[in-house]
Design brief:
Order of helices and strands: HHEHHEHH
Largest sheet: 2 strands, parallel
Number of helices: 6
Shape: globular
Number of strands: 2
Structural class: mainly alpha
Distance between the termini: 65 Å
Strand content: under 5%
Amino acid sequence: MSTTSIVHTSAVAASGFRASPRLRANLQQVLADLVALHLLGKQAHSNVVGHNFRDLPLPLDEVVDFIELQVQVAEVVDTARESSDTIAERMRALDAMPDGRPETVAAMTQLKGFPPGEQNTVGVVGLICDQLRTTAGTMRAVHGAVDAEDPSTADLLHALIDDIEKQRWMLSAEKRTVQQTR
């Protein structure tokens, strides 16, 4: 090992790893989608109406179905909030400044806006599933570049992708019907 590489390695170890502008931009894009997902999930949770959302004299299974849908949407919201915290904290650890301001998120997110007003339960499931798919897609799109620069951050993305895709699969089951096999 040459003296130059020892000095370089020692300097990096002493100062810590710092994100390049590209890594910062990639993580900021992921953060924007996660913050937007959190806000859109809250909007969905607050405005869902429809088939499973009636007054008290409901059959028990319909009450359970609606509560399960509300719980699943709440889990998506929690996942998005926790994931955005994870990315923001990782950015700070890499000496990058996360920007979760509404105007930054609105300008950067890949997620489509959520319609205003009340939304039926089936529509909410479809909309949230689309948002989850887009969010995971953003993470997958930046993953290679992130992994090339910082495998530790790529590992965080792996876990977040797994969690978000699981949430999408579980929520999408609300809309599915059994397909007949031949």
